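Subject: Methyltransferase domain-containing protein structure
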Amino acid sequence: MERVPDVPETFTPDRPAWVSTPPQPADPAQAVNDYDSFAEGYSAETESNIINAHLARPAIMALAGDVAGRRILDAGCGSGPLSAALRDRGAVVTGIDSSAGMLALARQRLGADADLHVVDVRDPLPFADGAFDDVVASLVLHYLEDWGPTLGEMRRVLRPGGRLIASVQHPFVDHLIQDPPRPSYFSTTSYTDEWTFDGQPFPMTFWRRPLHAMTDAFTAAGFRIAVLSEPQADPAARELFPDDFDEFKNKLSFLCFVVEVPRSAAGSGDQPTTPGERAPSLAREPGFWAAGSMVAGVAGRATRSEA
């Protein structure tokens, strides 16, 4: 009997209109990710589409829960849709992004007095230890080759008991969208998409890593994993996207995490671990949840904080 392949040899996901070519192996010479060049076009495209406005953002907001009075750092805030939603719920929001063009749009949205800063999440954060109750990083970490320094800084600026709420491209989606022969799922590899706005192409480079590399990075930085989820589209989107919703709702797209800073430094696993040192099993973490391993389909892709 002929063996059925584990994954399809060819795979064509639903992709946003601005993603104009299949992913290719990354070209370091093109790794610019210059959001300043297309800030307005990107912000307009992601303002109300199904994948950003009705999946990625609602997923983060659902995990955040009641944020009234909480000090929240929106890391990679883009043009500020998530910052605005958090502020509307009563949070005190600070936004950072490496793109001055995106922050200009965020200031238009949030007002001249908004607390916004041009900061690259790869760099040390200009905030005091324990300055925030929560950090949100919506579709940001998959731009980074090394999560370690960034997660270390995010942990530093969180108070004991604080949360990092993050979403990334689902690693299995990013594995499937690459043409055969694909790199090993278990490797951390980079790839390049070509995005097109106003007829002009822009190469965008991302880093894909397996799930275990993500969880290892969180625990190595001293976080405890509280929630792991694979969100589905907001049911309210059915009325807005009647032709697409039923198919879209059953497809993987993102992976979301809530990870916490321990309230006490005492006890095993509360301190950052050295590279290669195993942290406590996921199954022992409170509130851990993961969907089954059977995959019915894969959704399109969105990126960065506009989610």
